[in-house]
Amino acid sequence: MNIFAVTGNPIAFSKSPNIFNTFFNINNDDATYFRLNADSAKEAITVFNELELSGMSVTAPFKTDIMQYIDEVDDIAKQIGSVNTIIRKNNKLIGYNTDYNGIIDSLPNVENKNILLLGAGGAAKAVAYSLKQNGANITIVNRTENKATDLAGKFNLSPINISNIKSIIKNIDIIINTIPNSIKLIKDEWLNSNHIIFDAIYNNSVYKEIAKKKSIQFIDGKTWLLNQAIPAYKLFIGKDINISISDINFEQKSKEKIILVGFMGSGKSTIAEKLSEKLNMKHFSTDTVISVREGMSINDIFEKHGEQYFRDAEEQILNMLCSMAGKGIVSTGGGVVLSEKSRKIIDKNYQSIWLYANTDAIMKRTEPENRPLLKNNFTKERVTELMNGRKDFYSQSCDLLVNTSYKTIDEVINLLIKSELL
375 falls in which pLDDT band (50, 70, 90)? Predict the structure, then answer.
């Protein structure tokens, strides 16, 4: 199976999995795609390499910083100065920027058009490069003025101070917003129906409502997201895809039921218990529920009835817990994803978080006498073998990966709370 991810910070809101998993389903690809949370570009690449992912999409704020951790960068990405797509090819990591395609394919003809570019980050670099290549006249403004000045110098743009927006806005044809965090630089009364607004911030546009009210042509960031994903998919899989925005289901899963999956020693039970206290949500451990129901320990269940009996019991418990009313957090045994039926239950009913820990962390944290599959063979080779055998299944059952390898329990909990996935 080819495994792909999107990384950035924050990343829980990303709609890229909705797009790429739809691509994979349409073209019957043996592939899956999830969100990879990371504190830095370096951490993202570390997890990428540890899991030997086939490719990765990159979003803010890692698009520029991640370039130092990959082996090759194609010419367009070099000129833009940022990477949004990475593939693994011939044991090398190669970076590309498909934002160029996303911008040009989302906008009307920009030749000789006056563009106001809001922002000076990785996305703004791609906008500046793309539009200059297609003959646009670009004015740039940013909250941090020296960043706008630097980007203007690189691409021959016209930088202005925020205080000067009002004086030039009437001569602008297209406004392109790349500034996140609900920051609005343009006042509603400055806008009119002659403008076109293209907002890259698709999850919470501050201009969408006023555009509708004033009959302003509004281009949703999801259009850009789809148009940059199509060439990225070609890089990932080597196929073309014929699709429109209406073919994508952008709905997010319900946050009512949270499930933690991951290998033994990744911290699922402890994190679930503490997280449930913080969020005032009920917590259920599938292992505990099974043990109580059977009247014996997990080790004894394995010895008396075998692993398949235990996997069937996990499936039954997952079904029971997801049917219960109210919010809840479920922690699971490390092998819950081995059952296809259990994976389908998780995908349909739970917001799934893969708590990932690398082999070294697992070896330090695990007590083999309490682990039926390791009790008589606790070696790094055996742990690695088990982890590799489950990697595809964790990937298929994952909405968000969180790396716990070098984080404390409290750090992981705070990260999950801030992620907005819960």
Answer: low
Residue type, 3: I
214 is catalytic: no
What is the spatial distance between Cα 339 and Cα 344, in angstroms, rounded to a whole number? 9
Residue 113 half-sphere exposure, CB side, CA atoms within 13 Å?
Answer: 19
- Nearest residue to 166 via CA among 186, 195, 182, 140: 186
Q: Are residues 273 and 152 in the same domain?
A: no
Last-in-domain residue among 201, 219, 237: 219
Give strand pairing partners of 258.
Answer: 329, 351
Lookup: tokens for 378: 């606790």
User: What CA–CA distance (Å, rounded) separates 223 from 4?
Assistant: 21
Q: Are residues 279 and 406 in the same domain?
A: yes
CA-CA distance, 407 to 24, in Å (whole number)?
33
Q: What letter would DSSP give residue 112?
A: T
One domain, residues 366 and 241: no
- pLDDT, tens digit (0-9, with 9 covering 90-100), for 301-346: 988 999 899 999 999 999 998 888 778 999 998 899 999 999 999 9
Q: How many helices (H) and strands (E) does the chain have?
A: 17, 17
List of residues 6+ apart from 302 with CB closer than 8 A: 310, 372
Q: Is 0.85 surpassed by the pTM of this model?
A: yes
Residue whose C-alpha is closest to residue 117's, from 181, 192, 169 = 169
Bridging pattern class, strands 85-89 and 92-96: antiparallel
Range of the domain at 141: 102-219
Structure tokens at 334: 């490390």
From 15, 42, 63, 253, the catalytic residue: 63
3 state DSSP class of 289: helix
**What DSSP character marks residue 159?**
E
Give me the CATH number covering residue 180: 3.40.50.720
To the nearest 10°, the Cα dihedral for 376, 379, 382, 386? 90
Helix 340-349 and helix 380-396, axial crossing angle in degrees, nearest 10: 50
**Number of domains composing the chain:** 3
CA 83-87-92 angle, to 5 degrees, is 105
